[in-house]
Amino acid sequence: MALSIAELRAKISSSQKSNSNYDSSSIFSFSKLNIGDQIRIRFVDDGEPNDFFWRTRSTRTLRFDSIKLANGTIMDNRTFVSVPAFNIKKGDVNLSNLPEDYLYYSSDDVINQKIKPLWDGTEEGTKLYNKFGRTERYIFQGFIRAEGYETKLYRFVINKDLFNVIYSFITDDEIEHTPSDMEHGRDFILKVTKKIANINGKPQEVKDYSTSKWSSNESPLTEVEKAWLSENKPFVLKNFIPSRPTKEQENVMLELFEASYNSEPYDVARWGKIFKPDNVFFDEQGNIKDVKGGKNATTVATEIPTTTQYVANDVNTMAQPVVNNVQPNLNFNPQQAVELQNMIQQMVNTTPQQQMTAPQLIAQNSETISDTDTQAVINNILNKFNINPQN
What we know:
Elements: H1 5-15, E1 38-43, E2 55-68, E3 74-84, H2 110-115, H3 123-131, E4 134-144, E5 154-158, H4 160-166, E6 186-191, E7 193-199, E8 202-208, E9 213-218, H5 223-232, H6 247-261, E10 266-267, H7 268-271, E11 280-282, E12 288-291, E13 300-302, H8 308-313, H9 315-324, H10 334-349, H11 358-365, H12 374-384
Parallel strand pairs: 2-10
Antiparallel strand pairs: 1-4, 1-6, 2-3, 2-4, 3-13, 4-5, 6-9, 7-8, 11-12
Helix pairs in contact: 9-10, 9-11, 10-12
């Protein structure tokens, strides 16, 4: 006997679970949507008492064009670091209903106090202020009612424009219940169209969500959705927004701002444990492990610009790579150490005085020497560089 229409639809839906829209992550990826797509989202309430079914996340994104790794190497890579920004002004009503340890007032925002003078009415000042201005995003959660998506809660990070479309329910007289209500809520229909936007002075085609809307019909949570919530519980949305920064974090925020303002690199050793980049990931040694963007990443190794004159004035800079290559069981007495130091100084003085970087000089003048006799090691080094041991 042929399947009923309901059974047929269920079977087809099940067979399509592995299509390109499927994502095991709990964060919804807007980047996977194509122009012309349309999905239905059933928002649900916050996992803790909250007057709203969303939380507002206020951050400030600092840009760096390079990274200073833990070993001192500088990498050319556009890097973005998000830091907390104020989420309330003195005297304002706390519409986000956040606890006190999450409230970050505009008068306490250390970067906001730095950039306020930039807002001087000039075009240049306004542009610079906006470069470091704060951004508001909105965190929601809900089920996606579309083929290819699991029945589970996804988190949505939504920008201001799309939020305004979602927020339109406030003034819609036909919507009598909160859209996240378990029984009387309704779907939000996310539609993807296109528009031309001016980006960095150039017109570009971008996705447009402005035609999205609320469904005209109420739609209670399904038994499957209710069962998922009963077993897994909804997200506590405040866990995905920054709390008020500590004094230590504020000090680092100021350092990050100054570095970004002065076009200095992001210093992994200095800031990596406090504020990590949004688009670059490091291993435990502070080396780059992954870069968002894959093949389009711009990571390029750059030697630290140190001239010959600087190296010559600090012979220890030259001595260290040579000494590190000597057998570790050798012990230099004071006289031998002086001889080695003099040899290195002579080596530096006889190096052609051209503009070279420290890594280039070290590579050119470093040798790996191994022997069991300390004096033989010194003589071997001198011979390698054509220096008479009697000099």
